[in-house]
Amino acid sequence: MKAIKNTALALLSLAFLLSSGCGRHSTKEVYYLIASDMALPYWQTAAAGFNQAAAQYKVTAKVDGPDGHDPQAELAALHKAIAAKPSGILISVVDVALLQPEIDAAVKSGIPVITMDSDAPGSRRLYFIGTNNREAGRLGGQRVVEKLGGKGNVVFFTLADQANTAERLAGFKEVFATRPGIHIVEVVDIKGDVRKAFDWTQEALPLTGDKKIDAFVSLESASSKAVADALKRANATDRLLVAWDVNPDTLDEIKTGVIDSTVAQKPFTMGFFGLKALDEVFHAPPKLLSKDYSADPLAPFPVFVDTGSALVDKANVDLYIAAAAAGNK
Questions:
Q1: Cβ(230)–Cβ(204) below 8 Å
Q2: pTM for this prediction
């Protein structure tokens, strides 16, 4: 009887250790989050989610990548991470053509790779965690149509090499295709330099008549502040500005009315869920890491995990400001 009791206590202790993570995890497990533009609030939020998950699991998180938009520097960060032979890598792919070969090399060497925010669907990464960018683009497109009354000229600011911004633009175009009165005048590749958005807006604002630009849309998080500054300088209160992401400056300008609305993503969730997903792969690896699981009906992995998106305007902006303030405490 005593032996049975001792066995039961041992099993309970083991169950507690496993549930608390003590028996499974170690600080020797190292997970990398790699992206470009790491100085942006968006990526700081993603890093916070990644680090919080690591703290819960008692593993080691490392965040790397250039502060600005620099695909070559991101490639160098990825190469450095692979050389360290980590337990897994979570990466936002700023330039698919440049980074895909290195992603494939990482997986071939036995390192699990999951993409987040911006995908490389042709690579050997296991799957993608992030926004349904085409649907988010449709959400923004519907807002533009509504505010312009179905008629007007629109300019987009984007990062042309990224898969996520291309998908967002495709979503806008799908909505605009049903509204022949909406015309896309220009899609401006800012190449990571927000001054291009500011200068382009300043030059476009004096245009009148059929050439008047009625709406400006940022398909990434950095350019909307520059566009808002140009609109304020010109006192152009008759122009529509739709932004992307919930940077503090963006939320403030929604309150003032300079920015009409923004499409919110969930970078914290991407980082938080991403580390936990990598941890699961590390502890329960598939037989073939480099297999294309998207074509396998019995795959242990999804193709895509949608972390959600929403439109933020004056009606709900205070909820996002309050959430950001609570998260910073």
A1: no
A2: 0.88
